[in-house]
Amino acid sequence: MKTIIVAGAGGFIGGHLTKALNTMGHNVRAVDIKPLNKWYQVHDGVENMVLDLRIKENCFQAANGCNEIFNLAADMGGMGFIETHKAACMLSVLINTHMLMAAKECGIDRFFYASSACVYNGEKQTDPNNPGLKESDAYPALAEDGYGWEKLFSERMCRHFTEDFGLLTRVARFHNVFGPFGTYDGGREKAPAAICRKVIEGKMLGKKDIVIWGDGHQTRSFMYIDDCIKGVLDIMYSTITEPINLGSSEMVSINQLVDYVEAIASYTLERKYDLNAPKGVRGRNSENTLIKQYLGWEPSIPLKDGLRKTYDWIHEEMIKSKGTNSKKVVFNEA
């Protein structure tokens, strides 16, 4: 049994990771900047700390007496957030820098950093028929402005703390993670949750149309949260020393994603395309050769299966927030 920090534990992925580590029997120190009542998940038997990890002293307070750190803390969201809050995203560099400094001084055994597919060269993502981004495609560097550059710089920080100080670091580049207990409204949500919310709202209120950002032909892959947590743990305790993709290779267009959610809801909406909305790159997919070589595994939960679970959870949350007069949406079994 170890004492393990989850930085960003009040967020979507952090809440699921905290649960997994707690279930495994570890002492978990869950840390987040948000007030505790704003955390997506709070678990019994966990030490919860509300700290701003951009401040160096707070990082040292959190790391003291711990064995390992999973750093998922960052100011981020979907394209609607990161394209309009570039400075805020860049300031997350303080979190990883100070956490690495604390890890070095406090004798931390292992350090995991959650990076992003936004580090990849934008010129390799101009075609919706993306063949998959290999780890080497991060260089020559042309990352997503703001958020992507912060992630790429922080990857290098991890590398140099390993080279210069012997701190064992692991870096995973997340590709679009989704699932229950995450953001589905308010501006920070990502495409699967946003589309689920819009379709549910349409069915509840009898709306006839849905607004899609971009032309709907842009492509992505989406990894269900259970695959993400397995990948994080496997990578942390592996011999992998380089940044590695952690994402599904099941690429779909945004139009296809809407098709899937409409099928789950048994409700079809007329599509209206907002070509001026934030939409990111044209095509992004995870090339998983390296993770299969190292781990003999890749994220494999089908998108449709994950969407059903996500849709159901968001539906229940919307029922709670808007009253219980709406009928329960029954899934299509087709």
Keywords:
334 residues; alpha/beta; Rossmann fold; UDP-galactose 4-epimerase, domain 1; 2 domains; seven-stranded parallel beta sheet; two-stranded parallel sheet; 11 helices; 13 strands; globular; disordered C terminus
SSE layout and pairings?
Elements: E1 3-7, H1 12-23, E2 27-32, E3 47-50, H2 56-63, E4 68-71, H3 79-82, H4 86-90, H5 93-106, E5 110-116, H6 147-165, E6 168-174, E7 177-178, H7 191-205, E8 209-213, E9 219-221, E10 223-224, H8 225-236, E11 244-246, E12 251-253, H9 254-265, E13 270-274, H10 289-295, H11 303-322
Parallel strand pairs: 1-2, 1-4, 2-3, 4-5, 5-6, 6-11, 7-10, 8-13
Antiparallel strand pairs: 9-12
Task: Report what the structure shows.
The chain contains eleven helices and 13 strands. The protein is α/β, with parallel strands linked by helices. The protein has two domains: 3-177 and 223-246, NAD(P)-binding Rossmann-like Domain (Rossmann fold); 181-221 and 251-284 and 302-322, Alpha-Beta Complex (UDP-galactose 4-epimerase, domain 1). Helix 1 links the parallel strand 1 (3-7) and strand 2. The protein is globular and about 60 Å long. 46% of the residues are buried. Residues 324-334 have low confidence and may be disordered.
